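step 3/5: co-fold with pyridoxal-5'-phosphate
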Amino acid sequence: MKALPREQIIELDKAHVWHPYTAMDEYVAETNPLVIARASGSRLFDADGRAYFDGNSSWWCAALGHNHPRLVRALAAQAERLSHVALAGITHEPVAMLAKQLVKLAPPGLPHVFFSDNGSTSVEVALKMSLQYWVQNGRPERTRFVAFDGAFHGETLGVTALQGVEVFRRPFASVVMECLRVPPASDGYERAFSVLESILQKDADTIAAVVLEPMVQGAAGMRMYDAEFLRRARALTTKHDVFLVLDEVFAGYGRTGPMWASEHAGIAPDLMCTAKGFTGGMMPMAATLATRRIFEGFFGGSERSFFYGHTFTGNPLGAALALEVLKVYEEECVLERAAAKARRIRDAFAEFSSIPGVTTTRSLGMIGALELGGRQGYLERSGLSVYHEALRRGAYLRPLGNVVYIAPPLNIADSDLDELLTIVAESVRAVTTSS
Ligand SMILES: *Cc1c(COP(=O)(O)O)cnc(C)c1O
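step 4/5: write tokens
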């Protein structure tokens, strides 16, 4: 098939495609979008063949880089056998094998896996599981949730209740469930914990679950916090018998170092959500892992079964891919090899703190972030100037407001990582020294 010319693709796009989190009038009037034709490893290639480092693994998904040959083969082989079948009263090998492997790798005490379609639905599943569990196990008044200020857990209306980025929540505030707020643990875990403690002391009887992004609040600006907060939150939720949901959608699959961010604290949640790196970013699929207690809370007849199930639940293509991802992690020693790359990121971002105009830097595992001076917040534009400088130098670095960050594939080549880090430094300098 002959590729359409770039201009024609943009024309069709601007006529019909509604982009996420985008002011479409400005986009149509002003934006000259990248047209990506293909990708390979840690690079995207545009319609003219220009290469760009994928600085954020395509929205934090492509943990093994793009088009990993083993993943491409696994997907193609599964497509030849079985692409889709329902998961009600039917099962298949990829989903059974994947569940077994996931449970083996997961924190202890999470032997049951519920599959869904994306990060948002993996959290939606956790919310509905918690609510239905309490309704049918004698605590129907437990209907509220607790989440961080600045929390991000996805897009569905249920999950929007947890939304802690105020501008994203405001349009829906009048119809979403009630959510109690804890200040970000990145501003000091002791204060965050004492707020959580007083919320549970006062209101545990009406709370279904505490939902947390472990170790790092991604969308809030790569805000990292002390594992001690997670340890204490685990002990406290156990004491009050409130569920702890850990959303590992971004932090899992080695993004923060270990396979699961909860390993920094040596804890296990009652429900764990995973997506993004779960299929190496190649298929939309996710999983929610549950304890035996929660699983058994749905025993006792069809009127007590979990009333949830997407059309593509347990999809064989996604499952075969997710299974191959786990094999690649093991056989290519992805986490072990990423440790040295994470140290490079840590050292580089520590140095970036001396660039004039950079107010603070931080890193954790395969994430490095820096903040530019000036007004904070998502709508702030300084990060966008760095974005344009980086594009000119061959890297895609979409910022979070004034936070410029990288979250590259875990298996990025060392030389590529060094080049990417150089582009970050040059692009930031170009912006901060010109203004
Ligand atoms: C991206 C993300 C989600 C939502 O995942 P989608 O696949 O976009 O629905 C949920 N939680 C966290 C922590 C995320 O980073």
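step 5/5: annotate
The pocket of pyridoxal-5'-phosphate is lined by residues 118-120, 123, 152-155, 213, 218, 247, 249-250, 275 (CB under 6 Å).
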